[in-house]
Specification:
Number of strands: 0
Order of helices and strands: HHHHHHHHHHHHHHHHHH
Number of helices: 18
Oligomer: single chain
Largest sheet: none
Distance between the termini: 43 Å
């Protein structure tokens, strides 16, 4: 099926009309498949396998059979749509949009661009160098670097699928707030001296070349992104949902509510401290978050844990050490950690 779609999309460069038919039919098939998941999961767990409703194994298996296809379908559909948006944002265009912007406006724009641009921790160093070369202020650059991994499209899709737009919207809003405020704070601390000297010594070498893509080209790139990202995260999705299913079916509610509930004042900073050294793909951590919340853990605490895991990943800190001195990395971690803790407390108070 995937090979057939790829063939049609590639041939669309010669016959563009066929591409729109394929994309339209795929969208209809996606809607039909998504609307059938719940009934199919219940039938498999309780009718085909004969497990009792309310039993530990039955509840755990029904959770697993429902969440795996739901999350994979959501990922596929949303990644396709987001990837099309991303084709309009090249690194050169992104740097041009941010260059010369003053603090405040620049931080907000950088954080918004961080959501839709296709950059992750692996591209942190070349992006950092390119932004500095283009005259983007240090604080504005950090707003982009914080938002890009923290407001993860996989996390947004999975939060929407598990909790709805309200929680997904809170996640986006809190991530943007953290990225903007942290970038402003870092910018006002005037820490340019803690950037490695070679970064300032490089010359601007941007080619200025812009790609001119047709819609079939954009569809092809979006499909390639779906194959690449889903191919990388599907195992994490299944492992994460498996852990979540075990928690859902077997862990008593009182056990987790006492540890991660609103009444435990220390739960939010403890969750952030736990998440800083613990790196996980967003696809792996969010099903665990879902199961924790179902067992009584508070939204602010689990959201703080998730944002710490995704936004303060150890690999990114190691990569950034190539261009930042330890003092600036420590400030970077500290500012974001404090912002996440405050966000967790606020959510626990208002939600």
């Amino acid at each position: 099926m995937g090979q057939a779609i790829s063939t049609v999309l590639k041939s669309g460069q010669r016959r563009p009309g066929s591409v729109y038919w394929v994309v339209g039919l795929a969208a209809v098939g996606w809607v039909i498949a998504y609307s059938s998941i719940q009934s199919l999961a219940d039938w498999l767990a309780y009718s085909a396998l004969g497990l009792a409703r309310g039993s530990h194994l039955g509840e755990a298996l029904a959770f697993f059979l429902y969440d795996v296809p739901k999350i994979l379908l959501l990922l596929s559909g949303m990644i396709f749509a987001i990837s099309i948006v991303r084709t309009f944002f090249s690194p050169e265009r992104t740097r041009a949009m941010l260059g010369g912007k003053r603090q405040g406006v620049g931080n907000a724009l950088a954080a918004l661009l961080g959501i839709v641009t296709p950059f992750c921790s692996c591209s942190a160093v070349p992006l950092f160098i390119g932004f500095v070369e283009s005259g983007v202020p240090l604080g504005v650059t950090f707003s982009f670097l914080i938002a890009a991994p923290t407001i993860n499209e996989v996390a947004v899709v999975m939060l929407y699928g598990l909790f709805g737009w309200r929680v997904a919207g809170l996640y986006i809003a809190s991530g943007l707030t953290i990225a903007i405020i942290a970038g402003i704070v870092i910018g006002r601390l005037r820490m340019e001296r803690y950037v490695e000297d070679f970064v300032w010594q490089r010359q601007v070498t941007a080619s200025g070349l812009e790609e001119h893509l047709t819609w079939p080209d954009r569809f092809q790139r979006a499909w390639d992104s779906v194959k690449e990202i889903v191919g990388k995260v599907w195992l994490y999705v299944m492992i994460g949902i498996g852990v979540g299913a075990a928690i859902h079916g077997y862990v008593p509610e009182s056990a987790l509510a006492g540890i991660m509930g609103k009444q435990a004042w220390w739960s939010v900073p403890a969750a952030v401290l736990l998440g800083i050294p613990l790196y996980s793909n967003a696809a792996g951590v969010i099903p665990v978050v879902s199961a924790l919340m179902e067992k009584g853990a508070s939204l602010g605490t689990v959201l703080a844990f998730m944002m710490s895991v995704v936004g303060l990943s150890l690999p990114e800190m190691i990569i950034l050490r190539r261009v930042l001195k330890p003092q600036l990395i420590a400030v970077f971690i500290g500012v974001i950690a404090v912002a996440i803790v405050i966000t967790g407390y606020v959510f626990n108070l208002v939600v």
